[in-house]
Write a structure and sequence with these properties.
The structure is a homodimer. By secondary structure, chain A is of the alpha/beta class. Chain A is built from 16 helices and 27 strands.
Chain lengths: 545, 545
């Protein structure tokens, strides 16, 4: 940034590039709405309000509202099933200019090659990457790559990362595990992940240098965590929707300790409702004062990460702007990035050689799938809208689904199965190479035969298959690490729609939510009962059952 | 900080050093008061609230209130007339654990040697230094040292500085001066100084990367500056008292954009009322909600400078604590620094060889002092409680004081004189080697003879002299750069009291305020009419008259 030129432009000694006139400006630093103009030079705001400056171009916004663009405080882009550049095309039109991304999904499959792939797939979206801290998430996982302390140090020194990604291994932190602590010493920007952690365990976790949490389920939990020094990211994704509950905790006095994030959101949900724009809009519709909602969506996340000049309309800030008919992201008409009106265009597809062909399994037979049942064997109770599961003990297995997790990185043939309550599939199965965070195969169905067909149909690249009565009726190839398609986002959207439509043929469950929750049944750091390729896992006791 | 040990202590696996019990804890992150205990290990808080942990020592606070310690967001320690270590002894008992200090007074006299002297005079007070950006304050100054862009870069690379000190040369910034801009590119933490700046000039100044301002005179000015991206430091010093006016601008929505500072405060005022403790207490007495006042005094300044782990009670934060009978700093009973109860003790006096003997002048005769008068020649109108002066044109010089400024670094003999309104000295004069920011000699009196005696009595080290009827009736040697005494603060206090008492023999003006305002009559960056050794200066037009 050439300060000299900015100052010249601000003083009117050289013309600005653009003057937006007739604006109603969301002055989020001053917490008020100001009528006036916004002057932009080389992508940077050099003045706003009651000002008049020469400019090469003037655009009259005719009373429209102008807000700074949004930042997603924590997102795994992989969960959208598109590559970062295509992800930008999805979210920028909804006003997101910046994301703090944690590429730990692809890291679990491909390690450094995956991180490099994501980092190098650039787009107009400002994408800051956190170094994944928990690959694998736990010592009990069977991942494709392992990033121990030494490996993390090596990766950190590449200089590609803003901080350390979510430290999900809270047992490691509060247990004082040496390798875990060595990661916490890499930087002072450390994302947290501590669902339900409280009291002295929470204090110990925070002593590790963790600065935020996006796993709160109740307003009370959020308030305890703020008091213990964490910033709270209100998550509204596909599988977890915490916004309605957590905004109860927001007051004028603590509002600068909250931000919005999506964590994991499917492409169809993103396309349908947006990401942070949806959070801001939903918060407003639920009664949050609009300037507060925009502050959470725009100002706070860049501030938490010490990123200067993003998230507000003020001199020296990036001219990443949202134009709206009303102060509500539902009414966005235009988005400006670096002072230029954003127009969607096709982007080159990157080379995926280094990150494809990641599926290595032995063919699965129906008889390999042997879920156990009995009075002492818990069934996984899953619910829509949350990734948290509970153990339950129904009297019979009638109406329960079968779920299996199959190691897919090294063709070990490891497979475990369990019964699941909360879903309703009839005469079919769904398999996918998405299974947080090791991304082994997760498959669910009401019969073992269809489940085997679904798994064996995943090919060598992986993706999602839907089987009905012994036949694959839809599939979505996700050739990048078995998680992402490198295609144009519209093709992925179409493919995903076909899969969702196919799912409706075998289930009454909402397809996106079903796929998302299925993919999280193997995440051993979210309470309480999960399944890996090695068996059922009690997250609370942090051990296999 | 050994995270492993902190975690062990937080979890109770090893005993804490100290458990404060029976506390009413000011939880400023959560904006509430919490009853409970505070656990401390190696100077760091490892837990608080409803916790019980083993500890080597337990202290029952019996319902006392506990707050984090204060930070002074911007202070020139030199204005206290004691060295940094002695300054610590003055402010720590009043709850200040941290200061962001700008040593630009001594830098104007001694350059790098002065900066080194301050940096090396360590004490328990956490003292962060900003690199002085404006030595001298303007090209019109006659200072003892010059820190141009190249010199600043060299000094910055020593690694002793947190950021760039107050950029007072706003004409240089908004004029795009190359040397000034080179300083602004050293760091992203840049203190501001922009009294009355508004509109496009303010925008241009902020485009230079300036992040705060401590020169607001009205709530309206503060609100404009916040909207333009600056944090506001509410100043309550000896010469400038802005608190009562500026707290009108503080709301729950913007309270995290304000901090308290003293800027310049005399030793007697510090001793009598404290510094930030006084700001917090005064704000509360003026009606500010106590938790908000403490937030401004404790939380915000460290946050503005990206200093982690200071200013709140939470795990991982420094155990710099204030114990009070009520949530009001007027009731402080104890202060803890790094988890240890603070006890005042004498400190070693540092070697001052490199920073003394800085006074080089030719003897001054009464006839050298020739203030001009006439209908077109402005008189300086000074007022208590503000450093801002105005030009005025009284019909006669009756009742006006004479003020002179005399170059003192290179014995050039340069001297200029003017009339001043607003003070009332009878039969005497006051001279001092404090004269912001070049620290030439400022002398004021009602007659030229006493003025000459006062100047000639300053010796080779400098200080303050008070003359009555031709005789020096009191003097305070300030051997460090002519600004500071290296003695124990109690001796300086006594010496200063003697000077103040002597002033009351020749004037009805409040002595501290008189000395402070006199010392600022030469600061060419505070509006509107100032005097240097080269003559009267119009600050608004930034030129000599």
């Amino acid at each position: 940034m050439n300060k000299s030129k900015l100052i010249d432009a601000a003083m009117g000694r050289i013309p600005c590039d653009l003057l937006l006139t007739g604006c109603q400006i969301l002055d989020l630093l001053g917490h008020r709405i100001v009528r006036g103009n916004i002057a932009i030079y080389e992508g940077i705001i050099v003045g706003y309000g009651d000002i008049e400056l020469n400019a090469k171009e003037r655009i009259d916004l005719n009373g429209c509202y102008v807000s700074p663009a949004f930042t997603d405080a924590h997102v795994h882009i992989e969960s959208s099933m598109v590559i970062p550049s295509q992800y930008g095309r999805l979210v920028i039109p909804r006003g997101v200019a910046t994301v703090i991304a944690d590429p730990h999904e692809i890291a679990n499959v491909c390690g450094e090659a995956g991180l490099d792939f994501m980092y190098n797939d650039r787009s107009p979206l400002r994408t800051y990457y956190m170094l994944p801290s928990c690959v694998p998430a736990t010592p009990f996982d069977s991942s494709g790559a392992i990033l121990d302390g030494a490996e993390c140090k090596k990766l950190w020194e590449k200089g590609n990362f803003l901080g350390l990604g979510e430290m999900m291994n809270y047992p490691g932190v509060i247990g004082g595990d040496e390798d875990t602590l060595s990661k916490l010493n890499l930087t002072s920007f450390i994302d947290g992940h501590a669902p339900g952690l409280s009291g002295r365990e929470l204090s110990a976790y925070v002593c590790g240098g963790i600065t935020n949490d996006h796993e709160c389920n109740t307003a009370e939990e959020a308030l305890e965590k703020i008091s213990q020094g964490l910033n709270i990211y209100i998550r509204e994704g596909t599988g977890s929707k915490n916004l309605e509950e957590l905004i109860k905790a927001v007051t004028p006095y603590n509002m600068h300790r909250f931000a919005f994030c999506t964590d994991d959101k499917h492409i169809d949900d993103i396309y349908r409702e947006g990401t942070i724009s949806h959070c801001v809009s939903k918060a407003i519709h639920l009664g949050m004062e609009p300037l507060t909602a925009f502050t959470l969506g725009c100002v706070n996340a860049p501030s938490f990460y010490g990123i200067r000049g993003l998230g507000a309309i003020a001199p020296g800030y990036a001219a990443d702007l949202i134009i709206m008919k009303e102060p509500d992201p539902d009414t966005i008409t235009d988005v400006y990035l670096r002072g230029v009106r954003y127009r969607d265009e096709a982007l080159p597809i990157p080379d995926t050689t280094a990150v494809r062909g990641t599926l290595h399994i032995k063919p699965v037979k129906a008889e390999d799938i042997q879920p156990q049942s009995g009075p002492d064997i818990p069934v996984i109770d899953a619910r829509p809208g949350t990734l948290i599961t509970k153990p339950c003990y129904p009297e019979s297995t009638e109406g329960l689904m079968i779920c299996s997790n199959i190691e897919r990185h090294r063709a070990t043939g490891r497979l475990s199965s369990a019964y699941v309550r909360g879903f309703n599939i009839k005469g079919g199965a769904i398999a996918q190479t998405i299974g947080h965070d090791s991304h082994n195969i997760t498959v669910m169905g009401d019969n073992r035969e269809d489940m085997a067909v679904a798994v064996n149909g995943l090919g060598s690249d992986g993706g999602i298959t839907v089987v009905k009565d012994g036949n694959i009726i839809a599939s979505l190839p996700l050739e990048v690490a078995g998680l992402i398609s490198a295609k144009d986002y519209r093709e992925v959207l179409d493919g995903n729609r076909a899969v969702n439509l196919a799912i409706t043929e075998i289930s009454e469950d909402e397809p996106s939510s079903l796929l998302m929750i299925l993919s999280f049944l193997s995440l051993l750091v979210i309470p309480e009962l999960k399944i890996s390729d090695r068996g059922l896992f009690d997250v609370t006791r942090f051990e296999f059952i």
